[in-house]
Amino acid sequence: FSGTFDGNGHTISNLGIIGDDFFFKLIEGTKEKPAVVKNVGWVNSTIDSRWGNIGLIRKSDGYVILDHVYNSVDYTASQGLVSCFVLTQYGHLTISNSYNAGKISYDFYDKEQTGIFVADARGVVSLKNVYNVAGSAALVGYAHDTLRIVNGYTIGDGIIKPLYTRNEEYGSYAVIRWDNFFYPDTISSYYAGDPLEEFADGTIATRLHYANDDGEIWGQNVGVDPLPIFSGKVVGYTGSSVNISKLTVVSFDGDTTSYPEYYIEGETRPFKYVPAQRDGYVFSGWFYNTDGAG
Predict the structure, then answer these.
(1) Contacts (Cβ under 8 Å, ≥6 apart) of 33
(2) pTM (2 decimals)?
(3) Are 41 and 5 in contact (CB under 8 A)?
(4) pLDDT tens digits for 43-87?
(5) What phi-psi label fits residue 87: left (phi over 0), alpha (psi between -120 and 50 degrees) or beta?
């Protein structure tokens, strides 16, 4: 497949995939015309890898974008590569505004072959606004080249490593970067995470929503939503570790640029905004205050 697959918010259900089979066998695109799968979810299906590799997409090659896609199908894995989304990736893959709510049951020990979003990443993978609430694997199984995540969390049962399982091959290490990525501190074999209560009380949702320009999709109705979701609004935050303040931008009269309205106190916020063009002037940067200092 090399075009645009737009599900228009619908779901695909009642699939029976057993063994070495997939929904997409190959998705490939170019830099000028990337392949796109968007606005679709996979639900109410049976996926079992008892005889081989298993996943929704067997191979992603070139420039591929998955946006607003989700999976809630449970996987049974007994051998081979396993992923709830992409099995093997080459080139450039971007997955954004997407999540997994399907469990993975293992009959084997080698979890390097399993990843929630990508099992075997051999190119550049960018994850933005993603989360996992069920699968016990890392978001990416084996990262060979470059992996970056901006805004996300994972909280599935039995997770050993939250972001990736392995990033080394013959002494060469993949480039791994993460920003605003969260996981519970119950994952004792990894770096210190965050208390489970902060996923429930709105703390993590607040950090995801306000920390940078990409977080507006995040929200949580505390007391109703047990975890952050893509609702766009944080309601009823009951934590105490995050304080939000109003951000005021002073520009010239007539500036039509849409600026962020809030920031998290005590934390650096990326601010790459450039005001609308003003005749006869060249924009050279921002001051920290209205006195023209900093």
Answers:
(1) 2
(2) 0.91
(3) no
(4) 988 777 666 677 789 999 999 999 999 999 888 776 677 888 999
(5) alpha
